[in-house]
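We were asked to recover a plausible sequence for a given structure. The inputs and outputs are reproduced exactly as logged, with field labels preserved.

PROBLEM: sequence recovery
POSITIONS: 602
GIVEN STRUCTURE:
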């Protein structure tokens, strides 16, 4: 229940006085409802249905009220009482309406608060956190689990309302007949104690709900990311079998919870009938309760017992949602632990970090794990990347090229050693400022499911039409964009699926240039281009020398021929070659031979 207490405190901190206003409204609603029920006895007394005194003589305040009504002319007494009853019920209805609206606003505002807080936590988490996490788990928590948490918030407010209402009604019942009410409450407490295990059962069902939902999101994410492989290899049947089995388990789990709640409701109805019969018998045979008093107690508990059922049902549903609250809390805690330092150039609108002299690594060590058995991805790397020059990084797959680039961009922090810009260590806010100065073009280019214009403006919302076309011309994209029926307003599809691989790479490169970075990082950014387009882009990149620092991860010889220096990465170690011929001297020719083989294959 620690998660429930945590989110209760969070709700209290978020809502402030509004929460206490809601509680006050709940108390007022309970009082109005009790007054309405209490007015039934004078009403029936005026109608003569309870006899001269049986309806009111033994009830607090009722006798005085009935006597005052009887002093009125006979034709006015009943209309006055009925009018008062209508006013009380109308006031209750209007208060109920206002309370429901405010409760919905409070609930939705709190859920929005949780959603924003969690999303901000994810956005502020460091890159290492994303490397070790599964993206589908974020989708699962931000949608399914957050929806369950939202429902739990609503049920919690409803549960508090029911408890306040019940407490007021029980208080009135005690005022009318303490002995009879005590009998009913003892019986009710025994039933509630018996039902506690059903709440534990609901929590178990809720845990399975969360696990199945997580599998559902993860599976769908993986399958649709790999849909081309599934279709091309005719794997539809096996994945349909998986989906059929998982949805069957989800259906069975939902049915189990429905069965749990239906059983609880039926048990409460049976026990309610038995208890009403019991206290009516005791009232007549043992306690000598007056008819008016008995009538009110019966009416009160006939109205209260559905509340007891509602409280039990709400408690079960909240119990089933506790695992969702735990998932939210765990993700919040993980994000907090992985949170990057506050502020930075991007957040404060300051100028990005510029590179005037060099980017330097000094005795850098890095590994993705933290145990002694974990192998270092980079070991004792020392190198200097001169400003305004083009540096190529080569090496076989898994050698550590991407890790080195991630360190140079400020995405990762060295375990030992340091990264420096112009001789100053890149730490905390400077790491964020460094990233603000970088444009990164990945080997697998990513485009949003939006228009070409929107994809470009994502990095510079204020860019002019002329600047957009200048960036497209730089990346040799202007010709094919002009041929599209809607030009810049053409929607590219999910991840740019409506474009070829080369077109996607060129658009992503245009987006990177539009940002006007001081550091341009190209990770196999021309791998999907034909020779002609690659030559055009290579010429454009050559023209950028002196204006920005260019770092290229490459396998093609053609990509690195214009490099001012080449860094060869082998098994986590890096060596710098000033000339292309030095590749063979420093690595036994292995790097260049692999690059030549790769070029031949392509």
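RECOVERED SEQUENCE:
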């Amino acid at each position: 229940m620690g998660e429930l207490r945590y989110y209760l405190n969070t709700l209290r901190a978020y809502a402030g006085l509004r929460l206490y206003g809601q509680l006050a409204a709940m108390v007022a609603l309970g009082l109005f409802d009790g007054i309405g029920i209490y007015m039934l006895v004078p009403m029936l007394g005026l109608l003569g249905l309870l006899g001269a005194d049986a309806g009111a003589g033994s009830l607090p305040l009722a006798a005085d009220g009935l006597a005052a009504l009887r002093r009125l002319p006979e034709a006015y007494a009943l209309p006055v009482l009925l009018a008062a009853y209508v006013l009380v019920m109308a006031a209750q209805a209007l208060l109920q309406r206002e309370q429901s609206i405010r409760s919905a606003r409070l609930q939705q505002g709190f859920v929005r608060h949780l959603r924003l807080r969690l999303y901000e936590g994810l956005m502020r988490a460091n890159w290492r956190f994303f490397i070790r996490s599964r993206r589908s788990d974020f989708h699962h928590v931000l949608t399914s689990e957050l929806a369950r948490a939202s429902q739990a918030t609503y049920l919690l407010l409803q549960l508090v309302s029911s408890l306040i209402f019940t407490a007021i009604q029980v208080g009135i019942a005690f005022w009318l007949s303490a002995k009879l009410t005590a009998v009913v409450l003892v019986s009710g407490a025994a039933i509630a104690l018996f039902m506690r295990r059903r709440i534990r059962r609901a929590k178990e069902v809720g845990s399975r709900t969360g696990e199945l939902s997580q599998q559902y999101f993860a599976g769908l994410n993986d399958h649709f990311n790999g849909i081309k492989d599934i279709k091309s290899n005719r794997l539809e049947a096996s994945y349909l079998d998986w989906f059929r089995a998982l949805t069957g388990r989800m259906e069975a789990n939902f049915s189990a919870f429905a069965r749990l709640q239906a059983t609880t409701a039926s048990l409460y109805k049976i026990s309610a009938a038995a208890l009403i019969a019991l206290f009516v018998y005791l009232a007549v045979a043992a306690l000598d309760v007056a008819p008016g008093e008995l009538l009110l107690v019966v009416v009160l508990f006939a109205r209260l017992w559905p509340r007891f059922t509602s409280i039990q049902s709400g408690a079960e549903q909240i119990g089933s949602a506790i695992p969702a609250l735990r998932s939210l809390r765990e993700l919040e805690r993980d994000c907090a632990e992985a949170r990057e330092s506050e502020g930075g150039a991007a957040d404060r609108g300051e100028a990005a970090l510029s590179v005037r002299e060099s980017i330097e690594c000094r005795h850098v060590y890095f590994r993705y794990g933290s145990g002694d058995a974990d192998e270092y991805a980079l070991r004792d790397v020392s190198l200097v990347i001169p400003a305004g020059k083009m540096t190529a990084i080569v090496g076989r797959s898994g050698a550590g090229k991407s890790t080195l680039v991630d360190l140079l961009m400020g995405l990762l922090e060295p375990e030992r050693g340091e990264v420096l810009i112009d001789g100053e260590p890149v730490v905390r806010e400077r790491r964020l400022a460094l990233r603000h100065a970088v444009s990164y073009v990945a080997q697998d280019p990513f485009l949003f499911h939006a228009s070409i214009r929107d994809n470009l403006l994502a990095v510079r919302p204020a860019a002019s039409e002329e600047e957009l076309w200048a960036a497209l011309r730089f990346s040799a994209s202007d010709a094919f964009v002009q041929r599209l029926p809607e030009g810049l307003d053409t929607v590219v599809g999910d991840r740019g699926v409506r474009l070829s691989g080369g077109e996607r790479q060129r658009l992503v490169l245009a987006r990177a240039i539009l940002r006007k970075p001081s550091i341009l990082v190209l990770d196999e950014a021309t791998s999907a281009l034909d020779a002609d387009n690659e030559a055009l882009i290579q010429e454009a990149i050559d023209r950028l020398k002196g204006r920005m620092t260019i770092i290229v991860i490459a396998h093609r010889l053609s990509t690195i021929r214009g490099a001012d220096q080449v860094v060869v990465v082998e098994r986590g170690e890096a060596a710098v070659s000033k000339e292309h011929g030095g590749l063979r001297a420093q690595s036994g020719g292995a790097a260049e031979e692999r690059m030549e083989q790769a070029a031949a294959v392509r």
